[in-house]
Every structure is written in C-alpha cells, then in structure tokens.
Protein 1
Amino acid sequence: LLALAALRNNDRVGLVAFTDRIEHALPPRKGRRHGLRVLRDLMAMTPVGTGTDLALACEQARRHLAHRGLVFLVSDFDDPRADLALRLLAARHEVVAVTIADPADETLPAAGVVTFEDPETGERVVVDTDDADFRARYAAAATAREAERARRLRDCGVHRIALRTDAPVIEPFLAFFRDRRAGRRAGS
C-alpha cells in the first residue's frame, strides 16, 4: 500500500525487510519499475530468521537514506532495546510506527485449556482460558503493554498508525496523511 502510494506521488521508495537479521534491502529509488520490484520482492520473500531486531533495521534504514525521508516501520515495537535506534532514526527522518493489533491480543475468549507458543522463542505455556481471573489479568496486561508502547514511541519522537486486524486498513493511513498535510502530528 505504501509503495503504491509512493509510486503515485513519484516519490522514492525502498525496503528493509527484517527479522533478527536483514532479510532483504533495496535502497530508495524513484520509478515504476523500482516500485514494482519492491512489491515483487516483498511478496516473494521467505524469511529465514525467527526473532526480531528492530535496532538493526533502523541502522540499515539510516545507512540507506542519504536525504531526509519518511520512514514507515511495521513492527510490534515490543523491544525497548530498540528505543535508542528509533530516536537516532527519528532525529534525521520522519518515522512512523505502523502497529497491527488483533482483538485476541487484548482479550482472551473462554476456550478451555490452550497452549500458546511464542513464535520467536518457541517457549510454550498452557493456560486455562475459562479462568475469568486469568482473562482479566491478561486484558489488564495487554492494556498496560499498549500504553507503554505508545509512551515509548512518543518519547522516541515517532508518529504512529495503529491498524487492527478486524478493521479496514485504508482509513488510518488516510487520516495520517490528512493530519500530516494539515501540519498536525499524526498518530501521536
């Protein structure tokens, strides 16, 4: 979506795809051919890594960007160790955190005994989701985690677009660009 918008505006577009390593990187360039390559490479990519190193991605983006630019980072931003790298990137560029929330991240349904696995570490935990007290603690922890993420992003000087898996994607981006055009700090 962002690559297509950049193409339409005749802006440069680049890509840094990352896990716990840089999976693929294309420096920003203009042109339809380059923009379509970004899309093709992104869709064809099969990540090798299983973790996340947001600081590494920020460093790679800083190396690719010779001129001030608009940088969109899609991540869960759960790693506070990346804050310094985010601050450094935001000191020179306009940085927008794109977060994606799923309703299951906020509230657990009563579904009996369930095994959860962390996709990055492989750690497993078995919980009884029928336990109302556990579900309440889960929801409270999710609310606290979200508030902390929002605070950290603000402190790093990063704008934010919050997407949800149960809502259309276009409106949050349109609102961001409307606010940006009007000179308001969008997504904060």
Protein 2
Amino acid sequence: DKGKRGVSPQFAKELAFALRVGRLDLLAEIGAPIRNDASDDLQNMALDIEQSLPPEVYHTLSVPEVDVSPQAGMGAIVSDIVEHQRPVDHWSFPRNLVSAFVSDLSKLTIIRVAGDSMEPDYCAGDRILVDTGHTTPSPAGVYVLWDGLGVVLKRVEVVMGAEPKRIKIMSINPAYPVYELALDDVRINGRVVGKWTWK
C-alpha cells in the first residue's frame, strides 16, 4: 500500500459534511471556487447521515448557541438578527422533549443573557432557548427583539386597539421603565421557550 486510498461515495459524503462543504467541492481541483449551492448539499447530506444513525442518536437534537449578547437592560448593543449569527457551540437535547413546545426545531437557537433588567427570572449569564421562527409578539411573553437601539430581552405584549399596532416592552426588574413602540419599528427575533437554571 502506498498510503493512498480511493474515496467511496459514502466516505466523500461524510467527509464533506464534516468539513461543511459540498461533496463536489471536496472532489474539485485545488483552487476551484466553491459553488453557491453547496448549502443544499449540506442539508441533504445532514438528512442522509441523520437517517442512517442509530435511534438513540437520531432522536437527539443539536441546537446552536450564538453570541448575540442581548443586553437585558438599557444601552443594548446593535447586533444582527439572531438566526444569522455564527454558532459558537452546539447543545444536544432529546428531540421529543423539545418538539412538544416548538413546531419547527430548525429555528431554535441558544443565547446568553446580559444585563439585569430581567432579573430575577433571567440573570446575566443565563442561557435561554429561543424559537426564532416565532416572530409575532403573540401571545404575550418574553422575546428577543431589536428595539431600534439594539437586541434586547424583554417581556412583550400587544397594545390592544392601537392603530397602527403598538407593543408594550417591559422589564421584570422594576428599576427599568416600561416603553411602547410601533410594531413596524421593531424586529422580533424570537420567543423564549426555555432557560437553564444552575443551582
């Protein structure tokens, strides 16, 4: 053996998925441009590989953690919307546990809380599970949103009867004031559906 081996279709698929490139990109000449549709390959490969895994792995959901650093108080930093952030880590959960609360599991992400305006329910450093597919502030609840100044974590409810539509944005910490904004002036990035509490 000269230290070389052929590349089977299955091995090429798994290697390309691990490297986050399309299978054809993996086999292309050195220096060739990466295709724009490589993401389609990755989605298809992820599905193929997932379905070939044993049940105990197949029933596990991997959720990305993103470094949005939403300020839960005043002076929120301007940030991109949650779902476009690059993951800094991934967390695994039983798929059936999470699917009981969220319809589209691909829209889940994890972020860390910053600031003290949502204490004691959400403290700085807490990790929260956000459904970024839930972008309508109904029902009332805790949402991650861009309020014109930055990305914040707040309790949000629709102001009934207001035209144009407005939302009330509230902190749990009474030291922070309640404020209202037109719904068109904010971007709802997702609804909080879970959190971690360390004891």
Protein 3
Amino acid sequence: MPEITVVITSYNLESYIAGCLDELFGQSFQDFNILIVDDCSKDRTVLMIRDYQSNFPGRLRLIEREKNLGSPARTRNAAMDSGFIDGRFVIFLDGDDHLEPDFLEKLHTAALRTNADITLCGYDRIDEQTGRVLCTEMTSFPILLHLPPQDDSLCFINGSLWNKLIRTDLIGNTRIPDFKVGEDVSFLQALYAKAVSVAGVQDVLIHYGVRGGSVISNTQPETIRAFADELAQLYQAQREPVLRENLARLAFIHIGISMAARAYDNPSVQIGEHLRWTRRYLYTQFDGLRTCRFLRLPSLVRHGVKGYALYICKLLYKFHCFSLFLFLYRFVRRLLHVDFKF
C-alpha cells in the first residue's frame, strides 16, 4: 500500500494534465499512487493519461465515467466510493495547479511529525496571463492546532482541498455535498468536527492559477442557498461551543461576504433582494451578528486589516448598507488587480 493516494478529477484538461502529472512524478517523495476520475472529457485528456499509465505501470489508475456527472463534488465522491483510495493519506488535486517539487514530502513529513489528521500548506494565487501573484495565503497557520480550538483559527483556513493532506480513515462515510459552490468548505467542516488536530506547513508549496480577467460571476442565488443550508445544518448539529462559534463566523465570511460578492458580480442577480435574504439568514440561523464572540471587535482586531474589514462588514450589515462594501471591493480589485481573501 502506498503512503499517499493523489486523487485528480479531470474534464477537458489536455492543456494542463501533462504538467500536473510531470510535477507529481517528479516529486522528491515517491511513495504514492494516483487515481484519476475523468468526467467524460471531449479532448485528448484521457489519451494523455493513458500514455502516463504505460510509462508508470501500477502507479496510476484511471476511472472513465460513461456519463458526465457535471461537478467536481460528484467526481470526487465517485473516487471515494471506488474503493481505489488505498493510501494512508489522501490529497485531492484539480489537475491544473502547479506543485513545488517537495509538495508531498513536506506535507507528509509534517503529518508524521505531528500525528495530525489534516496537514495543510501555504499557497498563492497567480494570474496565468501575467504571472503576477494575486495573494499568498496560509503561510502563518500554526505548526499544530489541536481541535476543538480555543480560538477562531478554523475560520481562517482556506476552503479548498488541494493544499490539504488528509488521513484517509478520517473521511469514513463523509462525502462532499452535491452543490457547485462551497462544497469543499462544507466537507472540510465535517472533517474538522471529527479531527483531533490540524498541522500547518508554512511554505508555499502549491500555486493556484487564476484564468481570465473578468470579474463577472454566474453564481446563482439558489446555489448560494444550498451552501448556506449545509452550513446551517452543520451548525445545528454541532454541540461543541467553540466549533459552533467558528461555524457562525465562517458563515458570515462565506455567505455574508464571499458569496455576496459573487452575487454582486452576477448582473442577473437582484442584489438588494439577495442581501436582504442574506441578512435574515445570518440573524435567524446563527444569530451571528449579535452574539458570536469571534465577530466582536476585541477578537477581530487581533487579525489586523482582515479583522477590521470583518468588523466594518458586520456594521454595514447592521445598518442595511453592505452593498457599499461590495461596490468598493469590486472597484479596488479592478483598480489594483489583486485578490483579497478573508
């Protein structure tokens, strides 16, 4: 059995899959196998993967879907249900990101040293057209965080899977919810509720490519509400007080800010109506704007600029003028060509 199973979901990745596989097979750590679930690619992706299978016999397994599943959540769930994840650890990659040569080695070393259930690393987001680094994240995460935490650390873990090495038996029967935005965040929250600890590697080991310069979003309100419902259900099911408060602020960050920004960027969304729904959701499902200690100023100021920004967002929601923040947020992103993450 390998130490790590690398799961990749692919759909029309002929421009990227070779680079991803070259970087994986060029890793300084080689005790891994690869499971790729292809969701009915129409280009040369599958043919290219088969070439790698012949060059690396026994190390790459390909599942070719006969019918398109239509979402990364479903294809990743298909991988988890396949019985082919046999590594002690698993990591889920997108197939179009760029890895440092010691990506797996440093994650694996940290996982063994700390005995953590989940080990994450720093990453950056890069504009593929210009090569400019838009933001760098997760480079100051603690070397080891015991769960449940004593603070709001979980709120600031990025919600993607591709920078996280997960102990396979932690997953068990947990699966990724079947919607297209925020599904990884919800999956990770379910894992944190079962985990004993999370470790951090503070080096930037993976580079996320951002394609296209448009800020136009096609995220629909019904998709956001499916994500919101899942967070509310996790919150209601959670009985540990600190984890509940982390979930409350997480909902404020993701539903109140990130998803509101996506809705604002979609010309088909009635933003006023959507923000009224968002405010009702936050107050009724979490009471997060009133009582969550992690949304109070003394807690937020410890996080510097991000903390002050969250407090201002809270006030703007309180006074029904959060659309002002969204206008300024989009203006600054366009003006400075940067990407802000909470």
